[in-house]
Design goal:
Elements (H helix, E strand, L loop, with lengths): L1 H33 L3 H4 L1 H6 L18 H8 L1 E6 L2 E2 L3 E3 L5 E2 L1 H16 L6 E6 L5 H4 L5 E7 L2 H4 L3 E2 L4 E3 L1 E6 L4 H8 L21 E3 L5 H12 L5 E2 L5 H10 L4 E5 H10 L6 E3 L7 E7 L4 H16 L3 H9 L4 H9 L6
Parallel strand pairs: 1-5, 1-6, 10-11, 10-12
Antiparallel strand pairs: 2-3, 3-4, 6-14, 7-14, 8-14, 9-12, 9-13
Helix pairs in contact: 5-12
Length: 341
């Protein structure tokens, strides 16, 4: 039975194949009749022509669309720095980028080599302007100048976790009267009204300084007037001049940006006679800047920074630029930690 069925099936297949061939032959004959000259010119070519294989279409490789894609594709990371933003970012005597945030960026690049398994990753440094055009146009992957994190700046760039507790602080002589220092360090208690009656006598009959033309000196003048202090205001041309004035006793306090105060003290021959108070009168977190809407790269940078902060050598990096960190600075870096889980 199986053999008979097989033979019957084979005959059916032959019949179908024969029918298809016959139908094709009839169709060709009809074409030859309907189109004069077709049969004379085409059949031989159709019978002998070899099939033509179409070449595969060239599909262009899509250009990298994210910072991590560009870094992996090119094997390099482009770091931007400013030449006039010491102690965060500047150019040293040999013409190379230098500064606290520049050094942190170097550590970030090392961490990216490890995390992305790019042992041959090269680092290219480029000078950038004061804005964020370079990261927006992808001419720099990361700007290492410690920009202030504000809502206005976040309209133009994204930022890493903070790398420094910026803001206005005060510099005094180390031997300044204890009561005077405590008054300057005193922070207003939360939910308690500030008494604006008789000002603390320790603040009277003092000389206060800040950089000429700065917002800080205008605020200083306003506060002295509102507190009705009998005090002098002595503007200074730069931080070096202000540090020298405090060390020499011609002014009692120099108010200014914390990073610049710490840096100027570090470079002063009278460093051991000077103290930057722990208190920040204003606060502005400083961070590395990168292009907006690139969360994967920002995550990679933050992860790299967290590994830098966890390294025991980070304390030495900070101290090299600003001196030993005080308790408030230590607490700041603890507060910006991002848990892994």
């Amino acid at each position: 039975m199986r053999k008979s069925a097989s033979i019957a099936s084979h005959r059916t297949d032959l019949a179908v194949a024969f029918g298809i061939a016959l139908a094709g032959a009839c169709a060709m004959a009809m074409v030859a009749i309907a189109v004069p000259g077709y049969a004379a010119t085409k059949p031989a070519a159709a019978a002998t022509a070899a099939p033509v294989m179409a070449e595969p279409a060239h599909v262009p490789v899509p250009a990298p669309t994210t910072t991590l894609d560009r870094i992996k594709s090119s094997g390099r990371i482009v770091l931007g720095y400013r030449t006039d933003a010491a102690p965060m970012s500047s150019r040293d005597a040999s013409g190379k980028p230098a500064g606290y945030s520049v050094e942190l960026c170097g550590k970030v690049a090392d961490a990216l080599k490890r995390d992305l398994a790019l042992s041959a990753l090269t680092v290219e440094w480029v000078v950038v302007g004061s804005g964020f055009a370079e990261v927006g146009a992808h001419r720099a992957d990361l700007v290492c100048s410690a920009d202030t994190v504000t809502l206005a700046n976040r309209e133009q760039a994204s930022f890493s976790i903070p790398i420094f507790p910026g803001g206005v602080s005060a510099l005094v002589r180390s031997n300044a009267p204890e009561q005077f220092r405590r008054t300057l360090e005193e922070r207003p208690k939360p939910y308690q009204p500030l008494w604006r009656g008789t000002p603390p006598p320790t603040l009277d009959h003092r000389t206060y300084s800040a950089l000429v033309g700065s917002e800080t000196i205008e605020v200083l003048k306003s506060r002295i007037a509102s507190m009705r202090l009998s005090a002098n205001v002595a503007p200074v041309a730069n931080y070096e001049a202000g540090v020298a004035a405090v060390a020499g006793g011609s002014t009692d306090v120099l108010f200014g940006e914390r990073a610049q105060l710490l840096d100027a003290v570090q470079r002063s021959p009278a460093a051991n006679q000077l103290t930057v108070l722990e208190r920040n009168y204003t606060f502005a977190a400083l961070a590395l800047s990168l292009a907006r809407n690139d969360d994967d790269f920002r995550l990679a940078v933050d992860r790299a920074l967290m590994s830098v902060y966890a390294d025991p050598q980070f304390g030495a990096i900070y101290a090299a630029w600003f001196g030993a960190p005080d308790a408030s600075t230590v607490e700041f870096f603890r507060s910006v930690e991002v848990p892994k889980q």
